[in-house]
From TrEMBL, chain A:
Coiled coil: none annotated. It comes from Actinokineospora fastidiosa. Its main location: membrane. The lineage of its organism: Bacteria, Bacillati, Actinomycetota, Actinomycetes, Pseudonocardiales. Keywords: Cell membrane, Membrane, Transmembrane, Transmembrane helix, Transport. Pfam families: BPD_transp_1 (PF00528), BPD_transp_1_N (PF19300). It is found in: Cell membrane. InterPro entries: BPD_transp_1_N, MetI-like, MetI-like_sf. Residues 110-317 form the ABC transmembrane type-1 domain. The chain crosses the membrane at residues 12-30, 109-134, 146-170, 190-209, 294-320. GO terms for cellular component: plasma membrane. Signal peptide: none annotated. Gene3D superfamilies: MetI-like. This is Peptide ABC transporter permease. Belongs to the binding-protein-dependent transport system permease family.
From TrEMBL, chain B:
It comes from the Bacteria. Transmembrane segments: none annotated. PROSITE patterns: ABC_TRANSPORTER_1 (PS00211), ABC_TRANSPORTER_2 (PS50893). This is Dipeptide/oligopeptide/nickel ABC transporter ATP-binding protein. It holds the Pfam family ABC_tran. GO terms for molecular function: ATP binding; ATP hydrolysis activity. Residues 6-246 form the ABC transporter domain. It comes from Actinokineospora fastidiosa. NCBIfam families: oligo_HPY (TIGR01727). GO terms for biological process: peptide transport; transmembrane transport. Keywords: ATP-binding, Nucleotide-binding, Transport.
UniProtKB/TrEMBL annotation, chain C:
The lineage of its organism: Bacteria, Bacillati, Actinomycetota, Actinomycetes, Pseudonocardiales. This is Dipeptide/oligopeptide/nickel ABC transporter ATP-binding protein. GO terms for cellular component: plasma membrane. The keyword Cell wall biogenesis/degradation does not apply. It holds the Pfam family oligo_HPY. Residues 7-253 form the ABC transporter domain. GO terms for molecular function: ATP binding; ATP hydrolysis activity. Coiled coil: none annotated. It is a peripheral membrane protein. Keywords: ATP-binding, Cell membrane, Membrane, Nucleotide-binding, Transport. It comes from Actinokineospora fastidiosa. PANTHER family: DIPEPTIDE TRANSPORT ATP-BINDING PROTEIN DPPD, OLIGOPEPTIDE TRANSPORT ATP-BINDING PROTEIN APPD. Signal peptide: none annotated. GO terms for biological process: peptide transport. It is found in: Cell membrane.
Length: 327, 313, 342
């Protein structure tokens, strides 16, 4: 088990480094000039050349990548406006537009995004699984049809439409206004401020979980061990929600593992629409002004989250299904 | 044996990674003459089905030789195996799983006929259907339109399509209802007599094997423990495992005598083939086992008619 | 048998939609006796057993007739009462322990759960009791194995777990549905011995459902043969298997190659069991039977024979004097004749 985790971590690191390399290469080859973007309009060729040299943009690709990697691992220095800025590890670069190290920018934005994703995932899993289980138990009856239709309907509306409606009409009226208060300062305020985005993102992705959980439940309720549970004289509630649901959770967890990337994308929309200063907003801004170091940083953090989440889900399997052994 | 058809020598098949190597078949030898029937019996995990798949070369052995009419087919490439593929055919346990549900039985049997190089495919398919007791007009039906017993007949027709000399039948009747089992047993018996086909009959049902086979080989945990003529094995079993197996088979004779016959009851289960016991593999469940059994693996000894691998037989 | 039987089934009919799985089935099992119900797939033997436990989905199944367990009527019983009966006074063992045990719960948890469903005891007490029962069904180091999952047991040990779970509340009625079909021969013998021992020890009424006449001969006091949803023959095992009165039972005997001797040739029952959606007219067995012309006119095709006989020994056939036919025509085919003489 420990050996397995170590091996998986090693492969995770290599995936992140490969992402870094590929991302760096793409930005390096991009037809837009970073120096020009920093300098702005009406910039002399001379000034651009000076910026290029000061940023090391005139150096070959590999040495630029080497410098970046060194920064990530041990830290490096940047020169900004004549001042030398210390950028300690993990240094993800320096945003000249915002005049701040990327690491600091991400450190500010990440908690917002993680809060949104974690909360929304909790909502979607809970609502989705419970609705799915409920529908499966009443398969073919009115309650089931309503649940299936609702899941189908909700699942086919574009997410941003739901988010827009929710931001315009719900947040600030029925629900508290969307804002981010760090959890360390005021846990209640944190939860209240994020309630609207949580519900919005959570309910929309709950649709997929509902369908999935319903199918998994219908399958598990048809298994022989469910008949055994009934033959033991257990209450119907216990048969369905303990024996049935326990077995249906595993396929849902699989979906969840594959879904983390989608949730991150959803968080990006959510932040933009609710005006929350998260990773998504940071990335969108960087994209608009071509702030390459910030984009690179966001890509790296995103890749790391995905790789770690996949590992977590795989380990969770051993807890969920005792027959699974990781080797 | 004068007209030897198949001679398996010291065949080994291991599965899985080194640390958890499953010793499915662990040094097995057996012989089969033209037109003869050999029953391969034993409990799940004894390696009998794996051995059947090795003989048909659906699996390649880890080591050992499989001589078919003088040629060692154990290591032949797929291309060089092709002529042997029509000669050695297989009938599977589950007629539901072994027939492609999207093809008509005409297409399923026709493909086998075509592989054997025969021209008049359609005529031959109809002929084969009649040989196995099906209506030749059902040639365009799909497997699901047949009952379980009829599907097994289709499986047999497919095996016969290439005019084989050897059929490996892996539990051919165990998925069928009792009344249908007898139909299929009789069909197989008739066909092998008519066409002179040798059969390696893999089964766990001792009654079925007794009915069908000239000779019987008993396997336990990847090894042969006893081989002999059916008459010898069933009336004078020498190996304790064979004795236990025969005594455990539920038998209608209780009804006749009124008192249950004396029984040998084995305790416990078959050990894991990943880590088989030292010496004699049966010793952990054997009532005759002593120190010798733990250190020395018994060899097969006896006459041509009957050999057993036991220190105390 | 002076006492009222613990399990009494009267005119039981089980229908799924317009498909009748079981028709007019009646039998009784007193305490301390074992009844085997024999039949091939689709004969209705399992559907009848599930009806005794009230395990059919009432939304899709129509059940008529009467099933009494210890005097209580199961057909139409209120769900709460039914739950109180299931797993306590009446328990069931299923065919395939691999799929009948929950893969995600430890065997200790599954057994203790069955105990706590019917007894107000602490988790600790339930666990101790579970270890007790596991030991009683012959699982070595039972206490240590409580925390193992089903997949960590071998096939035979899993079936012992299943039996332990059924016995945890000392049921008066045990129904075993093909309890050894998924097991190897030597393990099958162990499990059959175990069921017989437990019946002797606790004096329960036992119903074993099987397709294997060998199993019947080993374990049952009485036997009931089912074909196409109906009882075709029933009586004490020695009589039914020694001198069967129904051509279907003859056919089964003729189809089974026995270990004890080599028959010259099996005489299979021709054809296949009928489709329950389109049952034959008259006697359901007549299309596969060798004797309709012996009965004369078209009785077998037109009329379902009544279940008749004296006392415990009943059969459903139009053939006059079947015992003579059996002796003269069937017995000589069953290898050396003495095998089936009473």
């Amino acid at each position: 088990m420990l050996l397995y985790v170590l091996r998986r971590l090693a492969s995770a690191v290599s995936v992140v480094v490969a992402t870094m390399f590929a991302g760096f290469g793409l930005f390096f080859l991009a037809p837009t000039d970073a120096a020009g973007a920093i300098c702005g309009n009406n910039c002399s060729a001379e000034r651009i050349a000076h910026i290029r040299a000061s940023l090391g943009l005139d150096e070959p690709f590999l040495s630029q990548f080497g410098a970046y990697l060194t920064g990530v691992l041990v830290g490096r220095t940047y020169e900004a406006g004549g001042v030398v800025v210390e950028c300690s590890a993990p240094c993800l670069g320096f945003s000249y537009q915002l005049n701040q190290p990327v690491t600091a920018l991400i450190a500010d934005a990440l908690p917002v995004t993680v809060s949104i994703v974690a909360g929304a995932a909790t909502v979607s899993l809970t609502v989705g699984v419970l609705t799915g289980a409920f529908a499966a138990r009443r398969r073919g009856r009115v309650a089931d049809r309503v649940a299936v239709a609702a899941a189908l309907g909700l699942g086919s509306v574009p997410f941003f439409v739901v988010a827009l409606i929710s931001a315009l009409y719900l947040a600030g009226t029925v629900l508290p206004r969307a804002e981010h208060i760090p959890i360390s300062e005021d846990p209640l305020g944190w939860a209240a401020g994020l309630l609207a985005p949580w519900l919005t993102l959570g309910v929309v992705s709950a649709a997929a979980y509902t369908r999935h959980a319903r199918a998994a439940m219908i399958e598990s309720l048809g298994e022989d061990y469910i008949r055994t549970a009934r033959a033991k004289g257990l209450s119907e509630r216990r048969v369905v929600y303990r024996h049935g649901l326990r077995a249906a959770i595993t396929p849902v967890a699989t979906l969840f593992g594959m879904d983390v990337a989608f949730q991150l994308t959803g968080a990006l929309f959510t932040e933009a629409i609710f005006g929350l200063p998260g990773l998504g907003v940071l990335t969108l801004r960087a994209f608009a002004v071509f702030d390459l170091p910030v984009l690179m940083g966001a890509v790296l953090v995103g890749a790391t989250i995905l790789v770690v989440m996949n590992l977590v889900v795989d380990i969770a399997y051993t807890v969920l299904d005792p027959r699974v052994r990781l080797t | 044996m004068s007209d030897e058809l198949l001679r398996v020598e010291d065949v080994v098949k291991h599965f899985g990674p080194r640390r958890e190597r499953v010793r499915a078949v662990d040094g097995v030898s057996l012989e089969l003459a033209e037109g003869q029937t050999l029953g391969l019996v034993g409990e799940s995990g004894c390696g009998k089905s794996t051995l059947g798949r090795l003989v048909t070369r659906l699996l390649a052995p880890t080591s050992g030789r499989i001589h078919y009419r003088g040629t060692d087919i154990a290591r032949l490439t797929e291309r060089r195996l092709r002529p042997f593929r029509s000669d050695i055919q297989m009938v599977f346990q589950d007629p539901y799983l072994s027939l492609n549900p999207r093809h008509t039985v005409g297409a399923i049997i026709g493909a086998a006929v075509a592989r054997s190089g025969e021209r008049e495919t359609r005529t031959r398919v109809r002929e084969l259907l009649e040989v196995v007791g099906l209506d030749a007009d059902h040639v365009d039906r799909y497997p699901h339109e047949f009952s379980g017993g009829q599907r097994q007949r289709v499986g047999i027709a497919r095996a016969l399509a290439t005019r084989p000399r050897l059929i490996v039948a892996d539990e051919p009747v165990s998925a069928l209802d009792v009344s249908i089992q007898a139909q299929i047993m009789n069909l197989l018996q008739d066909l092998r007599r008519e066409f002179g086909i040798a059969v390696l009959f893999v089964a766990h049902d001792l009654g079925v094997v007794r009915y069908f086979c000239d000779r019987v080989t008993v396997m336990y945990l990847g090894k042969v423990v006893e081989t002999g003529t059916a008459q010898e094995i069933y009336t004078r079993p020498r190996h304790p495992y064979t004795q236990a197996l025969l005594s455990a088979a539920p038998d209608l004779s209780v009804v006749r005598t009124g008192t249950p016959r004396p029984r040998i009851r084995l305790t416990g289960d078959v050990p894991s083939p990943v880590d088989p016991p030292s010496g004699c593999r049966f010793r952990t469940r054997c009532w005759k086992a002593d120190d010798l059994c733990a250190v020395e693996e018994p060899a097969l000894t006896g006459t041509d008619e009957h050999v057993a691998a036991c220190h105390h037989a | 048998m002076t006492t009222t039987p613990y399990l009494a089934v009267r005119d039981l009919t089980v229908a799924f939609g317009d498909v009748r799985a079981v028709s007019d089935l009646s039998y009784a099992v007193p305490l301390g006796r074992t009844l085997a119900i024999v039949g091939e797939s689709g004969s209705g033997k399992s559907a009848a057993a599930l009806a005794v436990m009230g395990l059919h989905d009432p939304a899709t199944t129509r059940i008529t007739g009467s099933v009494t367990v210890g005097g209580a009527e199961v057909v139409g019983m209120a769900p709460a009462e039914l739950r109180a009966l299931r797993g306590s006074r009446a328990a069931m063992v299923f065919q395939d322990p691999q799929s009948a045990l929950h893969p995600y719960f430890t065997v200790g948890a599954q057994i203790a759960e069955a105990y706590r469903a019917h007894n107000a005891v602490s988790r600790r007490a339930a666990r101790a009791h579970a270890a007790d029962v596991l030991g009683r069904v012959g699982i070595p180091a039972a206490r240590r194995r409580l925390d193992d999952y089903p997949h960590q047991f071998s096939g035979g040990m899993r079936q012992r777990v299943m039996i332990a779970m059924a016995l945890v509340n000392d049921p008066k009625l045990l129904i075993a549905d093909e309890p050894t079909t998924a097991l190897d021969v030597t393990v099958q013998a162990q499990i059959l011995d175990l069921i017989a021992d437990l019946r002797r020890e606790f004096g329960s009424a036992v119903v074993v459902i099987t397709h294997d006449l060998g199993v019947v001969a080993e374990i049952a006091d009485d036997v009931l043969v089912m074909y196409a949803g109906r009882c075709v023959e029933r009586g004490p095992t020695r009589t039914v298997l020694g001198a069967p009165a129904h051509p279907y039972t003859w056919g089964l005997l003729e189809s089974i190659p026995v270990v004890a001797e080599k028959p010259a040739r099996l005489r299979p029952i021709p054809g296949s069991p009928p489709n329950p959606r389109t049952p034959p007219t008259g006697c359901a067995f007549h299309p596969r039977c060798r004797y309709p012309e012996r009965v004369g006119d078209t009785a077998c095709r037109d009329r379902m024979p009544e279940l008749t006989g004296d006392g415990d020994r009943l059969s459903r056939c139009h053939l006059p004097r079947p015992d003579q036919v059996f002796r003269a025509e069937v017995l000589p085919l069953l290898g050396t004749g003495d095998q089936h003489v009473r």
